[in-house]
């Protein structure tokens, strides 16, 4: 589609609050322009991702509605634990519903306590304020028993949309795997009911390959960022990983691979995104859902390069592939169960793999420091920070702990702290 369409009739049909939605698009557009479009020396292949962002409430929603007209179903999720291969195998479309902006917070706070994680208040706010076309387009929404705030919020969402909640174990012992496999099978049954289709070895095999291909492309992007100087800014890489939750997976994979072709040749020519010699940092912790670009913008404005994200909107979400050797349905389900249980979310206990992954990433990318990011009131990641701190200090890797929410009120204070950290890294560097 070449020229801008008028999507208002579609938004009206979906039941969006048009006035609130206009406000959201304005804030979103202004923020995107400031954070993204003013960067110098961006890779040309980011043009595709700019286009996706510009059409994320337009063309992409129209694609979803067209698919629904053909009898396909849209299934919303909030967590990388939900096995999207099953949705895809059944001809469904999986969309991420986590939100990263301070929209509809007053509405959310009519239902939820103020001192709750901003990610939860944000997705509730988007839904309750009627400004999220993805939520409106969903035929069913899948929750999961990760943190307490999320699982209790799903009970409230039930009043406005059909919700199915997967039970996640809290540990990773053999009996937890048994529970998780039963949950994956129940989830498959729910998806079969909603889509009116059956999972077969053929359609599941193809879906596993499609999602693995997308993960392979994201891993390739991760690999390109090992180069020094980094050929892409951290915020651009984050954007790509945020878009993975919304875009058509095959088209997305092709676009990421095209971006990687460009990045690999930039790396060969030592072409830098942000300026040679900047300190390199990993950001680790809570996920940054679209359009949460607050911290990356601050960090890169301070003159550091973010070269990796140890996060679910980052390598935690795509690090592991599903074993593709399964032939029977049972083998494939087992492979899915095992792959998803490798995700090292702080909601699990113990969760020592995550600390190991942070150390591995820091060493592999030759970083100068780690920024640990927690969303205020996110107990699992806030508590786990202590172990991260101990492990990094044992290796002599500097750590900056950032706790914030989606508001803009603390930007000045954060900038000051990040500036001081980056200056310290530069001094160690020289
Ligand atoms: S697998 S990180 S996507 S649960 S930030 S809502 S944990 S209070 S998002 Fe997550 Fe799945 Fe884990 Fe990943 Fe709760 Fe923390 Fe808020 Fe969070």
Helix content: 40-55%
Number of separate helices: 19
Query: What ligands does this structure carry?
Result: Double cubane cluster
Low-confidence stretches: none
Quick one: biggest sheet? 4 strands, parallel
Mind telling me the C-alpha Rg? 21 Å
* CATH-derived topology of the largest domain: Rossmann fold
Q: Give the helices and strands as they follow along the chain.
A: HHHHEHEHHHEHEHHHHEHEHHHEHEH
Which strands sit side by side, in order, in the main sheet? Answer: 2-1-3-4
The computed structural class is alpha/beta
* Corresponding CATH architecture of the largest domain: 3-Layer(aba) Sandwich
CATH class of the largest domain: Alpha Beta
The geometry reads as globular
Overall pLDDT score: 96
- Domain count, please report it: 2
E-strand count: 8
Strand content: 5-15%
How far from one another are the termini?
51 Å
What is the element layout, followed by pairings?
Elements: H1 8-14, H2 18-37, H3 46-54, H4 59-69, E1 74-77, H5 84-89, E2 93-96, H6 105-111, H7 118-128, H8 133-137, E3 140-144, H9 148-157, E4 163-166, H10 174-195, H11 201-224, H12 234-243, H13 249-268, E5 280-285, H14 294-301, E6 305-310, H15 315-318, H16 329-341, H17 352-364, E7 369-375, H18 379-394, E8 399-404, H19 411-429
Parallel strand pairs: 1-2, 1-3, 3-4, 5-6, 5-7, 7-8
Helix pairs in contact: 3-12, 6-7, 10-16, 11-13, 14-19, 17-18
Bound molecules: Double cubane cluster.
């Amino acid at each position: 589609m070449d020229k801008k369409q008028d999507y208002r009739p579609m938004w009206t049909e979906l039941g969006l609050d048009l006035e609130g939605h206009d406000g959201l698009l304005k804030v979103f557009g202004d923020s995107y322009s400031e954070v993204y479009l003013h960067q110098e020396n961006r890779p040309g292949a980011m043009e595709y991702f700019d286009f996706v962002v510009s059409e994320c409430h337009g063309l992409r929603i129209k694609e979803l509605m067209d698919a629904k007209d053909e009898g396909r179903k849209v299934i919303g999720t909030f967590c990388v634990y939900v096995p999207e291969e099953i949705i895809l195998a059944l001809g469904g479309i999986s969309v991420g519903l986590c939100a990263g902006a301070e929209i509809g917070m007053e509405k959310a706070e009519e239902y939820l306590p103020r001192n709750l994680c901003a990610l939860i208040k944000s997705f509730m706010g988007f839904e309750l304020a009627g400004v999220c076309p993805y939520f409106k387009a969903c035929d069913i929404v899948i929750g999961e028993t990760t943190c307490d705030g999320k699982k209790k919020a799903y009970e409230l969402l039930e009043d406005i949309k059909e919700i199915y909640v997967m039970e996640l174990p809290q540990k990773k012992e053999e009996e937890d795997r048994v529970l998780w496999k039963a949950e994956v099978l129940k989830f498959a049954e729910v998806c079969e009911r909603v889509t009116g289709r059956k999972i077969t070895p053929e359609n599941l095999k193809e879906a596993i390959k499609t999602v693995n291909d997308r993960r392979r492309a994201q891993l390739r992007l991760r690999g390109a960022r090992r180069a020094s100087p980094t050929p892409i800014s951290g915020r651009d890489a984050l954007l790509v990983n945020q878009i993975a939750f919304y875009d058509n997976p095959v088209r997305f994979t092709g676009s990421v691979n095209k971006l990687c072709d460009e990045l690999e040749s930039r790396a060969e020519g030592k072409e830098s995104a942000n300026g040679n010699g900047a300190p390199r940092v990993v950001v680790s912790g809570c996920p940054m859902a679209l359009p949460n670009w607050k911290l990356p913008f601050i960090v890169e404005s301070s003159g550091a390069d973010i070269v990796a994200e140890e996060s679910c909107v980052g390598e935690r979400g795509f690090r592991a592939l599903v074993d593709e050797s399964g032939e029977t349905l049972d083998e494939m389900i087992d492979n899915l169960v095992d792959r998803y249980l490798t995700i090292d979310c702080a909601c699990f206990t113990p969760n020592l793999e995550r600390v190991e992954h942070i150390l591995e990433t820091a060493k592999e990318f030759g970083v100068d420091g780690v920024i640990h990011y927690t969303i205020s009131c996110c107990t699992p990641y806030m508590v786990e920070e202590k172990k991260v701190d101990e492990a990094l200090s044992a290796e002599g890797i500097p750590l900056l702990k950032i706790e914030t929410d989606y508001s803009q009120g603390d930007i000045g204070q954060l900038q000051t702290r990040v500036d001081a950290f980056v200056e310290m890294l530069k001094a160690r560097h020289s």
